[in-house]
Amino acid sequence: xxxxxxxxxxxxxxxxxxxxxxxxxxxxxxxxxxxxxxxxxxxxxxxxxxxxxxxxxxxxxxxxxxxxxxxxxxxxxxxxxxxxxxxxxxxxxxxxxxxxxxxxxxxxxxxxxxxxxxxxxxxxxxxxxxxxxxxxxxxxxxxxxxxxxxxxxxxxxxxxxxxxxxxxxxxxxxxxxxxxxxxxxxxxxxxxxxxxxxxxxxxxxxxxxxxxxxxxxxxxxxxxxxxxxxxxxxxxxxxxxxxxxxxxxxxxxxxxxxxxxxxxxxxxxxxxxxxxxxxxxxxxxxxxxxxxxxxxxxxxxxxxxxxxxxxxxxxxxxxxxxxxxxxxxxx
Length: 331
What we know:
It is a single chain. The chain has four domains: 3-74, Winged helix-like DNA-binding domain superfamily/Winged helix DNA-binding domain (Arc Repressor Mutant, subunit A, Orthogonal Bundle); 88-136, no CATH class; 153-242, SH3 type barrels (Roll), CATH 2.30.30; 258-327, Alpha-Beta Plaits (2-Layer Sandwich), CATH 3.30.70. 16% of the residues are buried. The strands form three sheets. Strands 7-6-5-4-8 form a five-stranded antiparallel sheet, with helices on one face. The radius of gyration is 28 Å and the shape is extended. The termini are far apart. It has twelve helices and twelve strands. By secondary structure, it is α+β, with helices and mostly antiparallel strands.
């Protein structure tokens, strides 16, 4: 290889290193670029970085903010690049996605993302400050932590595929209970919701129009059909969740209703609701020197009943009477 070819190869490698470390939103200064490259063993002067950036800008969609010192980034209209490098913020994001969201991703997509997860781990291994972030951040459930139930992988993949392709799914499902029988259904997938340790499929049955939830771990088998899934008119998963449907009905013979809940408690206990509200319309009223009343319109669900029971004797009064009776198991 001639000296000119060596210089060209060296320049290409150097410019590729610079290009791969620019972000799409954050401006990166030449000094920061130099420090980043030097930490990874690439010795380069500020003057060379500036010259390389000006050359790169003639061929690639990067831009400068024209300040002194200059900052550089990918333009907002730049296509997503597939360079084998990952910034520290991207690496942290991929690691948290793998840890906390992989159960909600289609298995095929998780496998497809494996090289990116591996790249994130390698990137973090060379960046002590970012690795410390992963080691110091945790998500702890607000309730008693439970080990997620085992999900039949083939059934999960078929259900996720049906949801992605908007196709009906034929499945074998076993309801909760020791003596429950396995039943065959044809379902129209509408969405997935993870609640605590359990993932639920929100769907309709081909023979019924009402929206139902099926726990993913109770599917024994499933396959995607060629028939297109049927959707209820104007179905919206966020509205469905807000309705309290996933809190589960207190009475399975009647739909979930919204009630104006009123709770009376001491000032110290009422302080909790000034920080975490029951709903956007919540109100707190001081009744006397010691007692406060919290009022809010909420769905009347079994989840609400269980939650109210956790307060024990801290709840001095509960209204309406139907909620009080449910909390204290009065028929």
